[in-house]
Specification:
14-stranded mixed beta sheet; 5-stranded mixed beta sheet; alpha+beta; 60s Ribosomal Protein L30, Chain: A; 528 residues; 3 domains; 9 helices
Length: 528
């Protein structure tokens, strides 16, 4: 039987047995034998009892441990529930209103401005974290050399997918980039200064930047030249559509691109097409592309040709096909040009033309080089190291143009004429040498045929300045004639023949003499 430990009037307390059986203490000392037996059986099967000092309750050791294990699980479940609720709220909020982050906008602007000297601004930036979509509206880039009202670059809308997770790995991956109707405004003032931004020097960081795919829709590039003429000359490239893939600043990914559009000047429109590939922005430069357009009216560009030819452009159209390759900074390009119905007139009092071949200026050359269909076909190669400070694309193109004209002239007379390049890289036309009998001014056997062919060439180009140089062999021809006298007589004989047969003005002929071993001949070349 269970007895009360305290007096009858004291407050009763539950014993461990009653705590386990959840049965009250019997009144008047009565005891339910059935409940007591059940309690004894339970106590015998359980671990030792212990009292909680804080609550004063009795617990078995296993029950205490179970309680301690269950509490952290309840807390984790509560935290997970709270996180899920917050995520659902954020997703719902973003789907209704994409995040517009001023900080993100400023970071992007800073990354651009620290590389070039122009200011960047945008009207709106929206970023969706869960779809990785970013939309930037009203982008303006104002060059530090700006002197007009138009911004250097204006893009109404840019849309792309930014992979945010890769930012932790110092990687910027922008995929599916679309530029809607971007505009580039390039201007040159009366002093000849362009509004191009200058590149800044900054400490490079090893970030990977890549654009797997980018598209330009309805772009436009405007060139406004205020120096070339009194009235600014405006040329536009309109309706530009570009598709490009695999651009990167560190990986030679072999980016590929295609572009189409229209050249607009003076109200005339000419479609153009371009395709190419390059190793992105990796140095040394490796790229290749092809550019093609047909039937371009040259009249709107007359001020530019006047700078080179010192002639007035009456009419003319042009087809162009360019194949350009650059491998390890070595440029190698071929430009196939066809001028159709080209007509030029000399300008009185103008500066000497930069283009002069066979003593003829551009106006005369345009007439002489024209075929039966009124076309002039020229293949103009340009080569050089683009990293060489002495390499200028303008001067290299001009030299290549003169060389192409010379080759066109020499082509039908390749049996008697050839191009020879001087140490300065200037090309000259050398004619076939005229051989003589040793120690005399008598022409060698078969030489008269060469003189007839030379006459045919010089009849076509009578204004060509001709240099005739007579030679003697000082060893084999010593004592037969005085060396200088024999060399001069040989040169004089050739000159007299050409004056008579080819009708060359005598003032266009220059004579000289020289002694050199194993030479008993006269050499001719056309000097520009």
């Amino acid at each position: 039987m269970l007895k009360r430990r305290n007096g009858e009037g004291e407050k009763r307390r539950k014993s461990p047995i009653h705590r386990l059986t959840d049965s009250p203490i019997p009144k008047h000392g009565a005891c339910d034998l059935r409940l007591a037996a059940a309690a004894i059986i339970r106590v015998s099967n359980m671990a030792p009892l212990r009292k909680d000092l804080k609550s004063g309750k009795w617990y078995s050791v296993e029950e205490k441990r179970g309680r301690r294990k269950r509490k952290p699980k309840r807390r984790i479940r509560g935290l997970l529930t709270l996180v899920i609720i917050l995520l659902l709220f954020v997703i719902l909020f973003i789907n209704i209103n994409p995040i517009t982050s001023f900080t993100t906008e400023q970071i992007i602007i800073y990354q651009i401005e620290k590389r070039v000297t122009f200011k960047v601004s945008c009207e709106n930036l929206k970023a969706d974290i869960f779809t990785d979509r970013v939309i930037i509206e009203g982008v303006k880039m104002i060059s530090s050399n700006q002197f007009g009202e138009e911004p250097f670059i204006y893009i109404p809308k840019i849309e792309f997918r930014l992979r945010y997770k890769l930012l932790l790995q110092r990687k910027i991956i922008m995929d599916d980039v679309i530029y809607y109707q971007p505009e580039v405004f390039s201007e040159r003032n009366e002093e000849g200064k362009w509004n191009f931004p200058e590149k800044k020097k900054y400490k490079k960081k090893y970030w990977l930047f890549a654009q797997p795919k980018q598209v330009v829709k309805g772009g436009r590039i405007t060139f406004k030249d205020g120096k070339i003429s009194k009235e600014p000359l405006i040329t536009e490239l309109r309706d530009i559509d570009i598709e490009a893939t695999d651009f990167s600043n560190r990986i030679p990914a072999g980016a590929k691109y295609t572009a189409t559009g229209q050249i607009v000047s003076g109200g005339m429109k000419t479609p153009f097409w371009l395709e190419g590939s390059q190793d992105s922005f990796v140095k040394p430069l490796n790229f290749a592309f092809r550019l093609q357009f047909k039937d371009l009216d040259l009249l709107p560009f007359a001020p530019y040709q006047r700078e080179i030819t010192s002639s007035k452009l009456v009419r003319g159209r042009m087809d162009l096909e360019t194949e350009l390759q650059c491998e390890k900074n070595e440029l190698d390009s071929m430009n196939r040009v066809i001028f159709k119905n080209l007509e030029l007139q000399p300008l009185l009092g103008a500066e000497p033309s930069l283009v002069k071949v066979m003593g003829m200026g551009p106006a005369a050359l345009a007439t002489v080089l024209r075929d039966d269909q009124g076309r002039i076909r020229l293949d103009i190669p340009v080569r050089g190291d683009i990293t060489d400070p002495d390499f200028k694309i303008g001067s290299a193109l001009l030299k290549a143009l003169i060389r192409a004209i010379q080759e066109t002239i020499v082509g039908p007379f390749s049996s008697i004429a050839k191009l020879v390049f001087t140490k300065e890289g200037i090309s000259e036309i050398y004619l076939l040498p005229i051989e003589f009998v040793r120690g005399s001014t008598k022409l060698a056997k078969g030489t008269i045929t060469k003189l007839v062919d030379l006459s045919r060439l010089l009849i076509k180009y009578p204004t060509a300045p001709l240099h005739i140089e007579g030679y003697v062999d000082p060893l084999r021809e010593k004592g037969l004639w005085r060396g200088t006298s024999l060399a001069y007589r040989r040169a004089r004989k050739v000159a007299d023949y050409l004056i008579k047969e080819a009708k060359i003005p005598e003032e266009k002929i220059k004579l000289s003499t020289k002694e050199e071993k194993k030479k008993k001949r006269v050499e001719l070349r056309i000097e520009e």
